[in-house]
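Tokens in:
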């Protein structure tokens, strides 16, 4: 059976499973659509939350970013994992005890203000839409490769699949679909990693193989360091970027994770506060299975691709065009070239494809002496690395098909959760909560489905031209959530001093200052002086746009406290409410707000 047929079988079977589950668990009420009827078991919810949280950025993009940068991008691992711990300890149980359906509803009631609820809706939409761009980007990449079509058509197909099971299933359907998606994605991620770890180190546990030795007896990381430095790249295991930027970036990811509305919503689906705590613990276990494996996947993939392009070392000829076109070991390159995400050019006509860092002066001189004309691997999108890894390592066809299904499961699971958060914000917080409070449950359910469909269309349009690699786009979303939503939730739970005016001022200040920095940094304003800004040219010292969320959060906290101190004190009944939420007596059945 050829590889294309295998891919279709694995992907088709997984999609049939997801849609079948969604039909079986179709939401019939607003409670089921928003919170799955609050009847999800903690273990089930933990698995669904892990799938919701581990997105295309985790499955597809993160290992690629680590592979091409090394130690400096380990902040993705530390930030996202640490952020989940913050969410589990500081937010999830208290928000569940409050008993509402959405994050915006909590903010509106806690700060006794419709304006606060509306601002929270705006913050949620900005962060969630930015986040979903990265997911749809991952969907397009995975579909494009494994159906051997352009990433544009892959994006459209993925949008149709999400529409089929998320619009009708709501939170109830999405929950059980995400359980299946977690099983698919974790299997698809770990099996190739085990194979490759065995190939390179003889150790079946990738996390241990990373620190093991290759067949030659040389430590894997030492060998990788030698190869990448020979090619003119920075040492893999050493830090090279700004320490300040790395700390701020890690912090932005942490508090951004804790402020993600689509993950927080998952804790509204369990019956009791104690179940929310158990769900958080189980989620961390399920997340750890992938995150302990990711560094090994990144390093081993970088080693494989480097050795493949320079099979006899940097002093011998590189891979030839003829090899790429005829050798089965290089067939994956021709296949990925069709997606537009991989490209090469024999610039000097010598029949070889030289892959090295042409920014390195010594290597450039050597290249010119040998008649080279710059790096001839002209395009290598980092997001393809995990999906291409089994092919690069010449693993069996069924493993490649499994990875195809896993990459799509990761992207679709998070996309569905985000779209649900967006539709809930529009239908429950904006329409039902503000504009048409007398809306019937049937009409609200219809509005939720229509708004989700509209959100899918917007996500597709924006996903066609994303502002970076999938993980970088997601990092921007985390920064926005960190600057706007997380501080409001923290102050809402742990401080009775913050009033409605302070909360609104803080959220707006954090969101606006972060958006301004991102837009200016990325050159999205059509002003000549700003169009030259890139991630290598920050506006404020070494601080990149993906790291600014932590500063935006500090602005949010500061403005909220200053404005609250200058305005009317929080009413006593709200102070009592905060105390009752913060001290969950007995951890029994939660206050049901509906």
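Residues out:
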């Amino acid at each position: 059976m050829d590889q294309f047929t295998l891919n279709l079988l694995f992907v088709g079977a997984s999609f049939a499973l997801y849609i079948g589950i969604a039909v079986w668990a179709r939401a019939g009420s607003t409670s089921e659509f928003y919170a799955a009827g609050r009847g999800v078991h903690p273990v089930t919810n933990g698995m669904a939350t892990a799938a919701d949280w581990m997105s295309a950025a985790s499955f597809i993009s993160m290992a690629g970013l680590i592979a091409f940068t090394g130690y400096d991008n380990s902040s993705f691992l530390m930030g996202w994992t640490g952020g989940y711990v913050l969410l589990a300890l500081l937010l999830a149980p208290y928000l569940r005890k409050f008993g509402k359906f959405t994050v915006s509803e909590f903010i509106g009631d806690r700060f006794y203000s419709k304006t606060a609820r509306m601002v929270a809706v705006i913050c949620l939409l900005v962060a969630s839409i930015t986040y979903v761009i990265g997911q749809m980007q991952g969907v397009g990449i995975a579909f494009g490769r494994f159906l051997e079509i352009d990433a544009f058509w892959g994006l459209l197909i993925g949008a149709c699949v999400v529409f089929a099971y998320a619009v009708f299933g709501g939170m109830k359907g999405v929950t059980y679909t995400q359980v299946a998606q977690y099983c698919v994605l974790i299997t698809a991620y770990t099996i190739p990693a085990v194979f490759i770890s065995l190939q390179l180190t003889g150790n079946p546990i990738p996390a241990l193989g990373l620190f093991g030795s290759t067949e030659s007896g040389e430590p894997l990381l030492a060998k990788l360091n030698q190869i990448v430095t020979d090619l003119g790249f920075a040492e893999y295991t050493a830090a090279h970027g700004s320490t300040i930027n790395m700390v701020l970036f890690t912090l932005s990811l942490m508090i951004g994770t804790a402020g993600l509305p689509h993950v927080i919503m998952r804790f509204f689906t369990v019956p009791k506060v104690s179940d929310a705590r158990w769900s958080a613990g189980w989620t961390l276990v399920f997340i750890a299975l992938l995150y302990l494996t990711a560094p090994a996947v990144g390093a081993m993939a970088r080693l494989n691709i480097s050795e493949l392009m320079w099979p006899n070392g940097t002093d011998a000829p590189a891979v030839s065009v003829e090899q790429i076109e005829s050798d089965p070991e290089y067939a994956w390159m021709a296949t990925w070239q069709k997606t537009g995400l991989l490209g090469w050019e024999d610039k000097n006509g010598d029949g070889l494809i030289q892959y090295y860092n042409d920014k390195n002066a010594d290597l450039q001189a050597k290249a010119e002496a040998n008649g080279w004309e710059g790096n001839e691997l002209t395009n290598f999108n980092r997001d393809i690395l995990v999906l291409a890894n089994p092919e690069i390592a010449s693993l069996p066809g069924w493993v490649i098909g499994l990875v195809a299904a896993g990459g799509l499961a990761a992207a679709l699971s998070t996309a569905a959760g985000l779209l649900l958060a967006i539709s809930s914000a529009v239908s429950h917080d904006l329409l039902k909560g503000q504009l048409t409070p007398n809306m019937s449950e049937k009409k609200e359910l219809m509005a939720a489905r229509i708004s989700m469909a509209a959100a899918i269309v917007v996500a597709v349009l924006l996903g066609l031209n994303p502002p970076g690699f999938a993980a970088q786009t997601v990092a921007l979303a985390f920064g926005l959530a960190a600057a706007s939503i997380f501080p409001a939730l923290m102050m809402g739970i742990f401080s009775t001093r913050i009033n409605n005016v302070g909360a609104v001022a803080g959220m707006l200040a954090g969101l606006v200052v972060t958006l301004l920095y991102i837009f200016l940094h990325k050159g999205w304003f059509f002003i000549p002086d700003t169009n030259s800004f890139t991630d290598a040219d920050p506006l404020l010292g070494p601080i990149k746009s993906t790291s600014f969320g932590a500063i935006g959060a500090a602005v949010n906290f500061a403005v909220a406290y200053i404005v609250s101190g200058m305005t009317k004190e929080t009413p006593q009944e709200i102070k009592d409410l905060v105390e009752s939420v913060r001290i969950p007596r007995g951890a029994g059945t939660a206050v049901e707000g509906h």
